[in-house]
Amino acid sequence: MSLASITPVPQLAELEFTGLPGGTTVLNAGEGTASSVRFDLCQDGAGQVTLRGVLWATDEFSAPTYWVRDDAVGAITDEFVEYRRGMVYLLRVPPASFRVTGLEQAVAGDLQPFELRIFGDYGLWVLGHGSFLAGATGMVGANSIIYSSIYVVAGRLVPGDVIAGRPCPLGESLLERSWRMGSADFEVDACTYLGGGHTTAYRISRLSITDTNSALSPAEQMTHRFEGEAAVEAVLNYRWNHHNACDSFHLALPHADYAATTAPLAGCGSQVPNAPPRDFEDDPSGPVEFRVRYHGGTWTDGTMPGCTHYMFCP
Question: Residue 149: its pLDDT value, please?
């Protein structure tokens, strides 16, 4: 089961937590990205339901925390592990540190009696309310908590796995962008992740291009779509650099070539072959530079005014 968004979002005064820090904000439960919460339930042959784990995603880029009750450990263990093509921070918790009450009532629809306390320095406290559950993280004891965040997540308890439909692995975020180069309109979907040092890394998973240039035949002017990373990489050579400085791409189609390079920023990384050359002395506020050619002819150069990076244009 998972938390789902609730309307209206509960007010702070409605929460039954004690000692919340000043500035605490109630966040609506997410839909697979930030503020998403999943409860792992097991049911035995006699119909007894137990809570075996909680997956808690705070934001789109960090590895979610995954508390799992483990009868085989005597103390909490923690490690980062691969999970569903991404990473999670896994804490294996002994039963004595994983205290839950009111679970059967909550599954049946009565949320008020529910309470979950996962003890430890990286603990979790979830409380039932009349129509929603709310949870907070912190240093949790049997009767105490030192909150580690000013955010409380609230939502309805519903069946299903809230992260199952994520388009990107855990720790990555979907980016949908479009831009125009001359007569060509581009649309892309990409999974972005932290590339280190204020760098946004990305993997493009969908690409479509429509070019109505008169040099092209009606068939060539139709929209060309490429679905999946392998299909995209078969036609698109692209590179992201440190600080996303001078990122570049070259799209090679049978009837046309398109290439572009972004502005420098605290340096200038190398560009893919056929992309417009740029260096660190170029204006960092300057527009994307691009070039297009049809049927192997002469390149025609252009710029994207007001846009320093095709993936992050307004």
Answer: 93
